[in-house]
């Protein structure tokens, strides 16, 4: 039977590239998006053109109500998740003192609570089968912190600790949990950077450029297909930057 990967935030960017990489590797997909229905459908169509099955869900993965509804759909359809990629994420750029409670909660919910909820709901089957892979998409800012991005940095730092802790908890069940800490990746999340700001950052990166979403996707697939002894790791993909 073909394996199935669930990728959150898969309507564009890293999530879409990751979903397509898994489809190319012979996985069926379950993909989610907060509200980008048309782009999510575009991703589904590309996956189906590769000959793979794809189930879509539109909703906030930081909401337990939505995650419960998603897994009820999957149970009804007889879909079992073998790989979970917690990719859903947003950024917030600005001074901490100007940030509202609503903005803070939105970042933490999208970037961290969604990983908790999706992991919680995939685990019963993974534990029962004594097999499974979870990959969390993190950031170099989760370790070093970024000025004007306190909430984002805090959420990714939390995701790193979540990764390490859950990996230890699940190792006896033969379930591997790892994270990829991305540097500057050429996606919509970094569109707030001006051309000059981007050039200044890329001058600091030893590789001399931003990474691509497809490079992150390739790394995710490599981690999933790596030996089972690899778990609890925060793997940096930054062109040597951090």
Automatic annotation (TrEMBL):
CDD domains in the cross-refs: SDR_c
GO molecular function, one term: oxidoreductase activity
Keywords: Lipid metabolism, Oxidoreductase, Steroid metabolism
SUPFAM superfamilies, sorted: NAD(P)-binding Rossmann-fold domains (SSF51735)
Keyword Nucleus tagged: no
GO biological process, one term: monocarboxylic acid metabolic process
Family stated for the protein in its record: Belongs to the short-chain dehydrogenases/reductases (SDR) family.
Name assigned to this protein: 3-oxoacyl-[acyl-carrier protein] reductase
Source organism phylogeny: Bacteria, Bacillati, Bacillota, Clostridia, Lachnospirales
């Amino acid at each position: 039977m073909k394996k199935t990967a669930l990728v959150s935030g898969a309507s564009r960017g890293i999530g879409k590239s990751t979903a397509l990489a898994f489809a190319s590797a012979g996985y069926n997909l379950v993909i989610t998006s907060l509200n980008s229905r048309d782009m999510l459908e575009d991703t589904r169509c590309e996956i189906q053109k590769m000959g793979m099955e794809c189930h879509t869900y539109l909703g906030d993965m930081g909401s337990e109500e939505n995650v419960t509804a998603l897994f009820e759909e999957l149970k009804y359809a007889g879909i079992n998740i073998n790989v979970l990629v917690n990719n859903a994420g947003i950024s917030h750029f600005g001074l901490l003192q100007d940030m509202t409670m609503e903005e803070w909660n939105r970042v933490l919910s999208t970037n961290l609570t969604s990983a908790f909820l999706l992991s919680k709901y995939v685990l019963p089957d993974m534990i029962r089968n004594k097999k499974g892979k979870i990959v969390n998409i993190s950031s170099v800012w989760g370790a070093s912190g970024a000025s004007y991005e306190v909430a984002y940095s805090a959420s990714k730092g939390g995701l790193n600790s979540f990764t390490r802790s859950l990996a230890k908890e699940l190792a006896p069940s033969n379930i591997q949990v790892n994270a990829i800490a991305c540097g500057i990746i050429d996606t919509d999340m970094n569109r707030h950077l001006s051309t000059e700001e981007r050039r200044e950052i890329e001058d600091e990166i030893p590789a001399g450029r931003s990474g691509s979403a497809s490079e992150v996707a390739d790394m995710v697939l490599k981690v999933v297909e790596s030996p089972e002894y690899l778990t609890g790791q925060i793997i940096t993909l930054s062109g040597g930057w951090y």
